Amino acid sequence: MPDRLCALLARRGRPLEVGHVASQLLRLRRCPEFLQRKLVAEIVEGDARLAWLGRDLVGLAPPDWSDTELSEATFCVVDLETTGGSPGRSKVTEIGAVRVRALRIEERFSSLVDPGRPIPPVVTDLTGIDDRMVRGHPDIARALPGFVEFAGQDVLVAHNAPFDLRFLNYERRRLTGRYFTQPWLDTLILARRLLAGRAGRHDLATLAEWAQTTVRPNHRALPDAEATAEVLVVLIGMLAERGVVTLERAVAYAGLGGMRHSHKLALAEDLPSTPGVYLMRDRNGDVLYVGKAGNLRRRVRAYFGPGGKHGRLIGRALERLEVIDHETCGSEFAALLRENRLIKDLQPPCNRRGTGGAGRYLRLVGGPEPRLHLAAAVRDDGAGYFGPFRSQRMAREAVACLEVLYPLRDADPGLREMSVRDLGAVLAGDPVALGGLGCRLGAAVASGAVYVERGEGPDGPRAVLALLAALARARRATTRSGVIVEPSGPDGAAEVFFVAGGVIRHRAVVDAAAWTTPVRDGLARLRRHARPPAPLLAADALDEASLVEERLRDGADALTLRPGWRTARALEHVGRAVDRIAATARPADEAMTA
Fold first, then answer.
1. What is the tens place of the pLDDT at every residue in 543-583?
2. Is 219 among the residues known to form the active site?
3. What distance in Å separates the CA atoms of residue 214 and residue 211, rounded to the nearest whole number?
4. How far apart are CA 337 and CA 330, in angstroms?
5. Looking at residue 191, what DSSP letter applies?
6. Are 399 and 374 in contact (CB under 8 A)?
7. Using one digit for the tens of pLDDT, what is the confidence trace for 340-367?
8. Among 143, 272, 486, 591, which one is most buried in terms of CB atoms within 10 A?
9. What is the distance between the alpha carbons of residues 116 and 98, in angstroms, rounded to a whole number?
10. Catalytic residue among 20, 219, 506, 573
11. Closest CA to 334 of 582, 504, 482, 491
Protein backbone atom coordinates (compact mmCIF):
# COMPACT_ATOMS: atom_id res chain seq x y z
CA MET A 1 0.00 0.00 0.00
CA PRO A 2 2.78 2.57 0.77
CA ASP A 3 4.29 1.88 -2.68
CA ARG A 4 0.96 2.58 -4.34
CA LEU A 5 0.55 5.83 -2.39
CA CYS A 6 4.07 6.97 -3.34
CA ALA A 7 3.29 6.19 -6.98
CA LEU A 8 -0.02 8.08 -6.75
CA LEU A 9 1.72 11.14 -5.28
CA ALA A 10 4.44 11.03 -7.94
CA ARG A 11 1.84 10.69 -10.69
CA ARG A 12 -0.24 13.61 -9.38
CA GLY A 13 2.81 15.74 -8.76
CA ARG A 14 1.43 17.35 -5.61
CA PRO A 15 0.39 16.56 -2.03
CA LEU A 16 -3.09 15.06 -1.67
CA GLU A 17 -5.80 15.60 0.90
CA VAL A 18 -6.70 12.69 3.19
CA GLY A 19 -10.13 12.39 1.60
CA HIS A 20 -8.58 12.13 -1.87
CA VAL A 21 -6.21 9.35 -0.74
CA ALA A 22 -9.06 7.46 0.94
CA SER A 23 -11.17 7.74 -2.20
CA GLN A 24 -8.53 6.99 -4.85
CA LEU A 25 -6.28 4.54 -3.03
CA LEU A 26 -8.51 2.84 -0.46
CA ARG A 27 -11.74 3.14 -2.47
CA LEU A 28 -13.57 4.56 0.56
CA ARG A 29 -16.08 7.03 -0.80
CA ARG A 30 -18.61 7.10 2.03
CA CYS A 31 -16.33 6.58 4.99
CA PRO A 32 -16.49 8.83 8.11
CA GLU A 33 -13.81 11.50 8.12
CA PHE A 34 -12.17 10.31 11.36
CA LEU A 35 -11.84 6.77 9.99
CA GLN A 36 -10.33 8.06 6.73
CA ARG A 37 -7.65 9.87 8.74
CA LYS A 38 -6.95 6.82 10.87
CA LEU A 39 -6.52 4.47 7.88
CA VAL A 40 -4.39 6.91 5.90
CA ALA A 41 -2.27 7.63 8.99
CA GLU A 42 -1.41 3.93 9.32
CA ILE A 43 0.08 4.08 5.82
CA VAL A 44 1.87 7.43 6.16
CA GLU A 45 3.37 6.85 9.59
CA GLY A 46 4.65 3.42 8.64
CA ASP A 47 6.83 4.55 5.72
CA ALA A 48 9.67 7.09 5.86
CA ARG A 49 9.03 8.09 2.23
CA LEU A 50 5.71 9.65 3.20
CA ALA A 51 4.93 12.66 5.38
CA TRP A 52 2.26 15.06 6.53
CA LEU A 53 3.03 18.29 4.68
CA GLY A 54 0.29 20.44 6.14
CA ARG A 55 -3.08 20.23 7.77
CA ASP A 56 -4.65 17.00 6.49
CA LEU A 57 -2.22 16.95 3.54
CA VAL A 58 -0.15 13.87 2.54
CA GLY A 59 2.95 14.07 0.37
CA LEU A 60 6.40 12.66 -0.32
CA ALA A 61 8.76 13.46 2.55
CA PRO A 62 11.31 16.18 1.68
CA PRO A 63 14.94 15.04 2.00
CA ASP A 64 16.35 15.35 5.54
CA TRP A 65 13.41 17.36 6.81
CA SER A 66 13.15 15.24 9.96
CA ASP A 67 16.64 16.47 10.90
CA THR A 68 16.26 20.07 9.72
CA GLU A 69 16.09 22.33 12.76
CA LEU A 70 13.65 25.23 12.65
CA SER A 71 16.40 27.63 13.66
CA GLU A 72 18.33 26.68 10.50
CA ALA A 73 15.43 26.09 8.08
CA THR A 74 14.56 28.29 5.12
CA PHE A 75 11.02 29.62 4.77
CA CYS A 76 9.22 31.55 2.06
CA VAL A 77 6.61 33.72 3.80
CA VAL A 78 3.98 34.86 1.31
CA ASP A 79 0.92 37.09 1.27
CA LEU A 80 -1.54 37.80 -1.54
CA GLU A 81 -3.99 40.58 -2.22
CA THR A 82 -6.97 39.56 -4.35
CA THR A 83 -10.23 40.89 -5.73
CA GLY A 84 -12.25 38.44 -3.63
CA GLY A 85 -12.19 35.12 -1.81
CA SER A 86 -12.82 32.52 -4.52
CA PRO A 87 -10.02 31.36 -6.86
CA GLY A 88 -11.19 31.49 -10.47
CA ARG A 89 -13.93 34.03 -9.92
CA SER A 90 -11.52 36.30 -8.04
CA LYS A 91 -8.04 37.28 -9.20
CA VAL A 92 -4.68 38.09 -7.60
CA THR A 93 -3.74 41.78 -7.50
CA GLU A 94 -0.43 41.61 -5.59
CA ILE A 95 2.16 39.04 -4.45
CA GLY A 96 4.56 39.77 -1.61
CA ALA A 97 7.08 37.34 -0.14
CA VAL A 98 10.19 37.27 2.02
CA ARG A 99 12.79 34.57 2.49
CA VAL A 100 13.64 33.71 6.09
CA ARG A 101 16.85 31.76 6.64
CA ALA A 102 18.20 30.95 10.09
CA LEU A 103 15.47 33.17 11.58
CA ARG A 104 16.54 36.26 9.60
CA ILE A 105 14.85 37.93 6.63
CA GLU A 106 17.30 37.78 3.71
CA GLU A 107 15.38 38.49 0.47
CA ARG A 108 12.13 40.04 -0.66
CA PHE A 109 9.83 39.58 -3.63
CA SER A 110 7.04 41.96 -4.60
CA SER A 111 4.88 42.38 -7.67
CA LEU A 112 1.62 44.06 -8.44
CA VAL A 113 -0.57 41.93 -10.71
CA ASP A 114 -3.06 43.12 -13.28
CA PRO A 115 -6.20 41.05 -12.63
CA GLY A 116 -7.59 41.80 -16.10
CA ARG A 117 -10.87 43.08 -14.65
CA PRO A 118 -12.03 46.04 -12.55
CA ILE A 119 -11.05 45.93 -8.88
CA PRO A 120 -14.14 46.21 -6.64
CA PRO A 121 -14.35 49.48 -4.68
CA VAL A 122 -14.53 47.60 -1.37
CA VAL A 123 -11.15 45.99 -2.15
CA THR A 124 -9.65 49.35 -3.08
CA ASP A 125 -10.92 50.83 0.18
CA LEU A 126 -9.23 48.01 2.11
CA THR A 127 -5.91 47.72 0.26
CA GLY A 128 -5.51 51.01 -1.57
CA ILE A 129 -4.93 49.08 -4.81
CA ASP A 130 -7.02 50.41 -7.71
CA ASP A 131 -7.24 49.89 -11.48
CA ARG A 132 -4.82 52.74 -12.24
CA MET A 133 -2.18 51.29 -9.91
CA VAL A 134 -2.09 47.83 -11.55
CA ARG A 135 -2.31 49.11 -15.14
CA GLY A 136 0.87 48.18 -17.04
CA HIS A 137 1.96 45.53 -14.51
CA PRO A 138 2.21 41.83 -15.48
CA ASP A 139 -0.81 39.59 -15.36
CA ILE A 140 -0.69 36.44 -13.24
CA ALA A 141 0.71 34.36 -16.14
CA ARG A 142 3.84 36.57 -16.18
CA ALA A 143 4.03 37.37 -12.43
CA LEU A 144 3.65 33.86 -11.01
CA PRO A 145 6.83 32.32 -12.56
CA GLY A 146 8.88 34.95 -10.75
CA PHE A 147 7.36 33.94 -7.43
CA VAL A 148 7.78 30.21 -8.24
CA GLU A 149 11.47 30.80 -8.86
CA PHE A 150 11.79 32.86 -5.68
CA ALA A 151 10.02 30.25 -3.50
CA GLY A 152 11.87 27.24 -4.90
CA GLN A 153 11.33 24.35 -2.49
CA ASP A 154 11.39 26.49 0.65
CA VAL A 155 8.75 25.78 3.27
CA LEU A 156 5.79 28.03 2.52
CA VAL A 157 4.37 30.12 5.35
CA ALA A 158 1.30 32.36 5.39
CA HIS A 159 -1.22 33.73 7.85
CA ASN A 160 -4.44 31.80 7.19
CA ALA A 161 -2.39 29.79 4.72
CA PRO A 162 -5.25 27.88 3.03
CA PHE A 163 -6.50 31.16 1.53
CA ASP A 164 -3.17 32.03 -0.12
CA LEU A 165 -2.35 28.47 -1.14
CA ARG A 166 -5.72 27.96 -2.81
CA PHE A 167 -5.05 30.94 -5.09
CA LEU A 168 -1.42 29.99 -5.74
CA ASN A 169 -2.18 26.37 -6.57
CA TYR A 170 -5.24 27.26 -8.64
CA GLU A 171 -3.26 29.65 -10.85
CA ARG A 172 -0.15 27.47 -11.09
CA ARG A 173 -2.17 24.41 -12.05
CA ARG A 174 -4.21 26.43 -14.56
CA LEU A 175 -1.05 27.79 -16.18
CA THR A 176 1.43 24.89 -15.93
CA GLY A 177 -0.43 21.83 -14.62
CA ARG A 178 1.80 21.81 -11.54
CA TYR A 179 1.35 22.56 -7.83
CA PHE A 180 3.37 23.81 -4.89
CA THR A 181 4.42 20.51 -3.30
CA GLN A 182 6.61 21.63 -0.40
CA PRO A 183 5.50 21.59 3.25
CA TRP A 184 3.74 24.64 4.62
CA LEU A 185 2.97 26.29 7.94
CA ASP A 186 0.08 28.50 8.99
CA THR A 187 0.95 31.19 11.56
CA LEU A 188 -2.75 31.52 12.39
CA ILE A 189 -2.95 27.88 13.55
CA LEU A 190 0.39 28.10 15.36
CA ALA A 191 -0.70 31.24 17.20
CA ARG A 192 -4.00 29.71 18.29
CA ARG A 193 -2.27 26.67 19.72
CA LEU A 194 0.75 28.35 21.26
CA LEU A 195 -0.80 31.51 22.70
CA ALA A 196 -4.03 30.06 24.10
CA GLY A 197 -5.73 33.45 24.03
CA ARG A 198 -2.84 35.49 25.45
CA ALA A 199 -2.88 37.84 22.48
CA GLY A 200 -6.65 38.26 22.49
CA ARG A 201 -7.50 37.80 18.83
CA HIS A 202 -5.29 36.01 16.31
CA ASP A 203 -5.60 38.26 13.26
CA LEU A 204 -2.30 39.43 11.80
CA ALA A 205 -2.59 43.02 13.07
CA THR A 206 -3.17 41.87 16.67
CA LEU A 207 -0.32 39.35 16.51
CA ALA A 208 2.04 41.95 15.03
CA GLU A 209 1.26 44.30 17.92
CA TRP A 210 1.71 41.47 20.43
CA ALA A 211 5.05 40.45 18.89
CA GLN A 212 6.17 44.11 18.53
CA THR A 213 7.15 43.62 14.89
CA THR A 214 9.13 46.37 13.18
CA VAL A 215 6.78 46.21 10.17
CA ARG A 216 3.04 46.43 10.77
CA PRO A 217 0.51 44.91 8.33
CA ASN A 218 -1.53 47.31 6.19
CA HIS A 219 -3.33 45.00 3.72
CA ARG A 220 -0.50 45.26 1.21
CA ALA A 221 1.26 42.04 0.25
CA LEU A 222 4.91 42.78 1.08
CA PRO A 223 4.39 44.55 4.45
CA ASP A 224 1.95 41.82 5.48
CA ALA A 225 4.47 39.13 4.48
CA GLU A 226 7.23 40.90 6.44
CA ALA A 227 5.02 41.18 9.52
CA THR A 228 4.06 37.50 9.19
CA ALA A 229 7.76 36.57 8.99
CA GLU A 230 8.52 38.43 12.22
CA VAL A 231 5.59 36.74 13.95
CA LEU A 232 6.85 33.39 12.64
CA VAL A 233 10.26 33.92 14.25
CA VAL A 234 8.63 34.59 17.64
CA LEU A 235 6.40 31.51 17.30
CA ILE A 236 9.39 29.32 16.40
CA GLY A 237 10.96 30.36 19.70
CA MET A 238 7.80 29.26 21.51
CA LEU A 239 7.81 25.95 19.65
CA ALA A 240 11.38 25.33 20.83
CA GLU A 241 10.25 25.83 24.43
CA ARG A 242 7.80 22.96 23.88
CA GLY A 243 10.42 20.67 22.41
CA VAL A 244 9.31 21.20 18.79
CA VAL A 245 12.65 21.90 17.15
CA THR A 246 12.57 20.26 13.72
CA LEU A 247 10.66 21.14 10.58
CA GLU A 248 8.85 17.80 10.54
CA ARG A 249 7.60 18.28 14.10
CA ALA A 250 6.49 21.85 13.46
CA VAL A 251 4.36 20.79 10.49
CA ALA A 252 2.86 17.97 12.58
CA TYR A 253 2.23 20.36 15.49
CA ALA A 254 0.16 22.59 13.23
CA GLY A 255 -1.80 19.62 11.88
CA LEU A 256 -5.29 18.38 12.73
CA GLY A 257 -6.31 16.24 15.68
CA GLY A 258 -3.37 14.62 17.47
CA MET A 259 -0.92 15.35 14.63
CA ARG A 260 0.49 18.41 16.38
CA HIS A 261 1.61 16.07 19.16
CA SER A 262 2.98 13.36 16.87
CA HIS A 263 6.57 14.13 17.87
CA LYS A 264 5.63 12.63 21.25
CA LEU A 265 4.79 9.30 19.63
CA ALA A 266 8.14 7.97 20.88
CA LEU A 267 6.69 8.02 24.40
CA ALA A 268 4.49 5.09 23.39
CA GLU A 269 7.19 2.96 21.77
CA ASP A 270 8.02 0.92 24.89
CA LEU A 271 4.42 0.26 25.91
CA PRO A 272 3.29 -3.38 25.74
CA SER A 273 0.35 -4.56 23.65
CA THR A 274 -1.44 -5.83 26.75
CA PRO A 275 -4.29 -4.60 28.97
CA GLY A 276 -3.37 -2.00 31.54
CA VAL A 277 -3.54 1.62 32.66
CA TYR A 278 -1.41 4.56 31.51
CA LEU A 279 -0.52 7.71 33.40
CA MET A 280 0.34 10.90 31.51
CA ARG A 281 2.79 13.06 33.50
CA ASP A 282 4.14 16.58 33.02
CA ARG A 283 7.77 17.67 33.31
CA ASN A 284 7.46 17.76 37.11
CA GLY A 285 6.19 14.19 37.28
CA ASP A 286 2.66 15.22 38.25
CA VAL A 287 -0.09 13.01 36.82
CA LEU A 288 -2.22 14.84 34.26
CA TYR A 289 -4.48 12.03 33.07
CA VAL A 290 -5.14 8.36 33.79
CA GLY A 291 -6.62 6.03 31.20
CA LYS A 292 -7.12 2.31 30.61
CA ALA A 293 -6.83 0.15 27.51
CA GLY A 294 -7.19 -3.40 26.31
CA ASN A 295 -4.03 -2.75 24.26
CA LEU A 296 -1.83 -0.09 25.86
CA ARG A 297 0.45 0.49 22.89
CA ARG A 298 -2.34 0.85 20.34
CA ARG A 299 -4.48 3.11 22.54
CA VAL A 300 -1.71 5.55 23.48
CA ARG A 301 -0.33 5.74 19.93
CA ALA A 302 -3.82 6.75 18.74
CA TYR A 303 -3.48 10.06 20.60
CA PHE A 304 -0.73 11.17 18.21
CA GLY A 305 -2.26 10.47 14.79
CA PRO A 306 -4.47 12.60 12.54
CA GLY A 307 -7.53 10.59 13.50
CA GLY A 308 -7.22 11.69 17.13
CA LYS A 309 -9.97 14.17 18.01
CA HIS A 310 -9.64 15.22 21.60
CA GLY A 311 -11.70 17.23 24.01
CA ARG A 312 -10.42 20.25 25.87
CA LEU A 313 -9.11 18.35 28.91
CA ILE A 314 -7.21 15.59 27.07
CA GLY A 315 -5.86 18.22 24.67
CA ARG A 316 -4.48 20.10 27.67
CA ALA A 317 -2.85 16.89 28.93
CA LEU A 318 -1.20 16.23 25.55
CA GLU A 319 0.18 19.77 25.43
CA ARG A 320 1.95 19.32 28.79
CA LEU A 321 2.82 15.63 28.38
CA GLU A 322 6.44 14.64 29.02
CA VAL A 323 6.33 11.07 30.36
CA ILE A 324 3.92 8.12 30.07
CA ASP A 325 4.01 5.50 32.83
CA HIS A 326 1.98 2.34 32.73
CA GLU A 327 0.84 -0.64 34.76
CA THR A 328 -0.08 -3.91 33.09
CA CYS A 329 -3.22 -5.71 34.24
CA GLY A 330 -4.47 -9.24 33.84
CA SER A 331 -7.50 -8.22 31.76
CA GLU A 332 -9.31 -5.21 30.37
CA PHE A 333 -11.80 -5.36 33.24
CA ALA A 334 -8.93 -5.35 35.74
CA ALA A 335 -7.57 -2.29 33.94
CA LEU A 336 -10.97 -0.61 34.26
CA LEU A 337 -10.99 -1.25 38.02
CA ARG A 338 -7.40 -0.05 38.42
CA GLU A 339 -8.14 3.11 36.43
CA ASN A 340 -11.08 3.86 38.71
CA ARG A 341 -8.90 3.48 41.82
CA LEU A 342 -6.03 5.58 40.47
CA ILE A 343 -8.36 8.41 39.43
CA LYS A 344 -9.84 8.49 42.94
CA ASP A 345 -6.43 8.42 44.61
CA LEU A 346 -4.60 10.86 42.30
CA GLN A 347 -7.43 13.21 41.23
CA PRO A 348 -5.75 14.03 37.84
CA PRO A 349 -6.75 17.49 36.57
CA CYS A 350 -7.53 16.28 33.04
CA ASN A 351 -9.85 13.43 34.05
CA ARG A 352 -13.52 14.28 34.28
CA ARG A 353 -15.07 10.96 35.34
CA GLY A 354 -14.42 9.56 38.81
CA THR A 355 -12.95 12.70 40.40
CA GLY A 356 -16.00 13.67 42.43
CA GLY A 357 -14.79 12.23 45.72
CA ALA A 358 -16.30 9.61 47.99
CA GLY A 359 -20.00 9.13 48.58
CA ARG A 360 -22.00 10.31 51.57
CA TYR A 361 -24.47 8.69 53.95
CA LEU A 362 -27.69 9.78 55.63
CA ARG A 363 -27.52 9.61 59.42
CA LEU A 364 -30.81 9.29 61.30
CA VAL A 365 -30.59 9.99 65.04
CA GLY A 366 -33.42 9.05 67.41
CA GLY A 367 -33.89 9.94 71.06
CA PRO A 368 -35.20 13.17 72.54
CA GLU A 369 -33.73 15.31 69.71
CA PRO A 370 -34.18 13.40 66.44
CA ARG A 371 -32.18 14.54 63.44
CA LEU A 372 -31.62 13.57 59.79
CA HIS A 373 -28.44 14.86 58.15
CA LEU A 374 -25.54 13.96 55.82
CA ALA A 375 -22.46 12.14 57.14
CA ALA A 376 -19.09 11.39 55.56
CA ALA A 377 -18.56 8.05 57.34
CA VAL A 378 -20.40 5.36 59.27
CA ARG A 379 -19.72 5.29 63.03
CA ASP A 380 -20.71 2.85 65.73
CA ASP A 381 -22.83 5.38 67.61
CA GLY A 382 -26.29 3.82 67.66
CA ALA A 383 -27.62 6.01 64.82
CA GLY A 384 -29.10 4.64 61.60
CA TYR A 385 -26.97 5.01 58.47
CA PHE A 386 -28.21 4.73 54.87
CA GLY A 387 -26.26 4.93 51.63
CA PRO A 388 -23.87 5.75 50.19
CA PHE A 389 -24.91 8.12 47.41
CA ARG A 390 -23.12 10.67 45.22
CA SER A 391 -25.11 13.88 44.97
CA GLN A 392 -25.00 15.94 48.15
CA ARG A 393 -27.21 18.63 46.62
CA MET A 394 -29.90 16.09 45.81
CA ALA A 395 -29.66 14.64 49.32
CA ARG A 396 -30.01 18.02 51.04
CA GLU A 397 -33.12 18.84 49.02
CA ALA A 398 -34.53 15.42 49.87
CA VAL A 399 -33.78 15.84 53.59
CA ALA A 400 -35.59 19.21 53.65
CA CYS A 401 -38.65 17.59 52.06
CA LEU A 402 -38.56 14.51 54.32
CA GLU A 403 -38.43 16.71 57.43
CA VAL A 404 -41.73 18.27 56.30
CA LEU A 405 -43.29 14.83 55.75
CA TYR A 406 -41.93 13.33 58.98
CA PRO A 407 -42.01 15.91 61.80
CA LEU A 408 -38.84 14.93 63.67
CA ARG A 409 -38.91 18.14 65.74
CA ASP A 410 -42.59 18.03 66.74
CA ALA A 411 -43.40 18.96 70.34
CA ASP A 412 -45.16 15.61 70.88
CA PRO A 413 -42.52 12.98 71.92
CA GLY A 414 -44.72 10.15 70.71
CA LEU A 415 -45.07 11.74 67.26
CA ARG A 416 -41.30 12.31 67.10
CA GLU A 417 -40.64 8.66 67.96
CA MET A 418 -43.14 7.44 65.36
CA SER A 419 -41.62 9.78 62.72
CA VAL A 420 -38.13 8.38 63.38
CA ARG A 421 -39.43 4.80 63.10
CA ASP A 422 -41.40 5.43 59.91
CA LEU A 423 -38.66 7.46 58.25
CA GLY A 424 -36.06 4.81 59.09
CA ALA A 425 -38.25 2.19 57.46
CA VAL A 426 -38.64 4.34 54.32
CA LEU A 427 -34.88 4.85 54.01
CA ALA A 428 -34.36 1.11 54.52
CA GLY A 429 -36.72 0.37 51.61
CA ASP A 430 -39.58 -1.21 53.54
CA PRO A 431 -42.48 -1.65 51.04
CA VAL A 432 -45.22 -0.78 53.53
CA ALA A 433 -43.36 2.34 54.68
CA LEU A 434 -42.78 3.38 51.07
CA GLY A 435 -46.54 3.13 50.48
CA GLY A 436 -47.07 5.39 53.48
CA LEU A 437 -44.55 7.85 52.06
CA GLY A 438 -46.64 8.08 48.87
CA CYS A 439 -49.73 9.01 50.88
CA ARG A 440 -47.84 11.60 52.92
CA LEU A 441 -46.27 13.10 49.80
CA GLY A 442 -49.60 13.36 48.00
CA ALA A 443 -51.23 15.04 50.99
CA ALA A 444 -48.32 17.49 51.38
CA VAL A 445 -48.44 18.49 47.72
CA ALA A 446 -52.22 18.94 47.91
CA SER A 447 -51.96 21.14 51.00
CA GLY A 448 -49.08 23.21 49.62
CA ALA A 449 -46.62 22.05 52.30
CA VAL A 450 -44.23 20.96 49.52
CA TYR A 451 -44.11 22.06 45.90
CA VAL A 452 -43.54 20.28 42.60
CA GLU A 453 -41.77 22.57 40.16
CA ARG A 454 -42.87 22.72 36.54
CA GLY A 455 -40.69 21.10 33.92
CA GLU A 456 -37.62 19.10 34.92
CA GLY A 457 -36.14 21.40 37.53
CA PRO A 458 -35.11 20.11 40.97
CA ASP A 459 -37.67 20.10 43.79
CA GLY A 460 -38.25 18.26 47.07
CA PRO A 461 -40.44 15.39 45.79
CA ARG A 462 -38.12 14.67 42.85
CA ALA A 463 -35.11 14.76 45.16
CA VAL A 464 -36.79 12.29 47.54
CA LEU A 465 -37.45 9.85 44.69
CA ALA A 466 -33.88 10.21 43.39
CA LEU A 467 -32.47 9.64 46.87
CA LEU A 468 -34.59 6.53 47.42
CA ALA A 469 -33.42 5.14 44.06
CA ALA A 470 -29.77 5.75 45.02
CA LEU A 471 -30.27 4.05 48.40
CA ALA A 472 -31.94 1.08 46.68
CA ARG A 473 -28.96 0.69 44.31
CA ALA A 474 -26.56 0.73 47.26
CA ARG A 475 -28.62 -1.91 49.10
CA ARG A 476 -28.73 -4.15 46.03
CA ALA A 477 -24.98 -3.90 45.66
CA THR A 478 -24.39 -5.16 49.20
CA THR A 479 -26.32 -8.34 48.38
CA ARG A 480 -24.69 -8.90 44.98
CA SER A 481 -22.47 -11.95 44.58
CA GLY A 482 -21.08 -13.38 41.37
CA VAL A 483 -18.21 -14.56 39.24
CA ILE A 484 -16.80 -12.67 36.25
CA VAL A 485 -14.45 -14.39 33.78
CA GLU A 486 -12.37 -12.21 31.43
CA PRO A 487 -9.70 -12.99 28.78
CA SER A 488 -6.18 -12.39 30.10
CA GLY A 489 -3.58 -12.06 27.38
CA PRO A 490 -3.21 -13.74 24.01
CA ASP A 491 -2.22 -17.19 25.30
CA GLY A 492 -5.70 -18.28 26.34
CA ALA A 493 -5.44 -17.49 30.04
CA ALA A 494 -8.43 -16.05 31.91
CA GLU A 495 -8.79 -13.78 34.91
CA VAL A 496 -11.59 -14.72 37.31
CA PHE A 497 -13.12 -12.08 39.59
CA PHE A 498 -15.08 -13.10 42.69
CA VAL A 499 -17.75 -10.59 43.75
CA ALA A 500 -19.37 -10.31 47.18
CA GLY A 501 -21.14 -7.32 48.65
CA GLY A 502 -21.03 -5.64 45.22
CA VAL A 503 -17.22 -5.36 45.04
CA ILE A 504 -14.28 -7.56 44.06
CA ARG A 505 -13.14 -9.71 46.99
CA HIS A 506 -10.69 -11.99 45.22
CA ARG A 507 -9.25 -12.63 41.76
CA ALA A 508 -7.19 -15.36 40.12
CA VAL A 509 -5.50 -15.85 36.73
CA VAL A 510 -6.10 -19.37 35.44
CA ASP A 511 -5.85 -21.40 32.24
CA ALA A 512 -7.67 -24.37 30.79
CA ALA A 513 -5.11 -26.81 32.18
CA ALA A 514 -5.30 -25.74 35.82
CA TRP A 515 -8.28 -23.73 36.99
CA THR A 516 -10.34 -25.89 39.34
CA THR A 517 -8.36 -25.40 42.57
CA PRO A 518 -7.96 -21.58 42.42
CA VAL A 519 -11.62 -21.15 41.42
CA ARG A 520 -12.83 -23.44 44.22
CA ASP A 521 -10.73 -21.41 46.66
CA GLY A 522 -12.24 -18.17 45.37
CA LEU A 523 -15.79 -19.50 45.77
CA ALA A 524 -15.03 -20.50 49.35
CA ARG A 525 -13.92 -16.93 50.05
CA LEU A 526 -17.20 -15.68 48.61
CA ARG A 527 -19.20 -17.78 51.06
CA ARG A 528 -17.33 -16.27 53.98
CA HIS A 529 -17.90 -12.70 52.72
CA ALA A 530 -21.56 -13.27 51.87
CA ARG A 531 -22.67 -14.20 55.40
CA PRO A 532 -25.42 -11.83 56.66
CA PRO A 533 -25.93 -9.20 57.76
CA ALA A 534 -24.45 -7.43 54.75
CA PRO A 535 -22.50 -4.28 55.74
CA LEU A 536 -23.09 -0.95 54.05
CA LEU A 537 -21.14 -0.28 50.91
CA ALA A 538 -17.95 1.71 51.54
CA ALA A 539 -18.19 5.40 50.65
CA ASP A 540 -15.43 5.15 48.03
CA ALA A 541 -16.77 1.92 46.47
CA LEU A 542 -19.69 3.41 44.53
CA ASP A 543 -17.88 3.50 41.19
CA GLU A 544 -16.47 -0.01 41.59
CA ALA A 545 -19.90 -1.34 42.53
CA SER A 546 -21.37 0.31 39.44
CA LEU A 547 -18.69 -1.23 37.20
CA VAL A 548 -19.23 -4.65 38.75
CA GLU A 549 -23.01 -4.40 38.42
CA GLU A 550 -22.68 -3.53 34.73
CA ARG A 551 -20.30 -6.44 34.10
CA LEU A 552 -22.51 -8.92 35.92
CA ARG A 553 -25.48 -7.72 33.88
CA ASP A 554 -23.86 -7.53 30.45
CA GLY A 555 -20.69 -9.66 30.57
CA ALA A 556 -20.69 -12.70 28.28
CA ASP A 557 -18.97 -14.87 30.90
CA ALA A 558 -20.46 -13.41 34.09
CA LEU A 559 -22.59 -15.36 36.56
CA THR A 560 -24.73 -13.77 39.27
CA LEU A 561 -24.87 -16.05 42.32
CA ARG A 562 -28.37 -16.08 43.86
CA PRO A 563 -29.05 -16.98 47.51
CA GLY A 564 -28.53 -20.70 47.96
CA TRP A 565 -26.10 -20.98 45.06
CA ARG A 566 -24.21 -24.26 44.65
CA THR A 567 -20.47 -24.58 44.16
CA ALA A 568 -20.84 -27.27 41.50
CA ARG A 569 -22.93 -25.02 39.25
CA ALA A 570 -20.51 -22.12 39.65
CA LEU A 571 -17.55 -24.38 38.79
CA GLU A 572 -19.37 -25.62 35.71
CA HIS A 573 -19.96 -22.05 34.50
CA VAL A 574 -16.36 -20.99 35.06
CA GLY A 575 -15.06 -24.10 33.35
CA ARG A 576 -17.10 -23.42 30.20
CA ALA A 577 -15.94 -19.80 30.15
CA VAL A 578 -12.27 -20.73 30.57
CA ASP A 579 -12.52 -23.30 27.76
CA ARG A 580 -14.22 -20.77 25.47
CA ILE A 581 -11.53 -18.17 26.11
CA ALA A 582 -8.78 -20.72 25.46
CA ALA A 583 -10.43 -21.84 22.22
CA THR A 584 -10.65 -18.29 20.83
CA ALA A 585 -7.11 -17.23 21.83
CA ARG A 586 -4.77 -16.13 19.06
CA PRO A 587 -1.52 -18.02 18.45
CA ALA A 588 1.39 -16.44 20.28
CA ASP A 589 3.31 -15.49 17.13
CA GLU A 590 0.22 -13.77 15.71
CA ALA A 591 -0.29 -11.84 18.96
CA MET A 592 3.28 -10.59 18.90
CA THR A 593 2.74 -8.95 15.52
CA ALA A 594 -0.56 -7.30 16.44
1. 899 999 999 988 778 999 998 899 999 999 999 999 998 88
2. yes
3. 9
4. 11
5. H
6. yes
7. 999 988 999 998 876 666 789 999 999 8
8. 486
9. 26
10. 219
11. 504
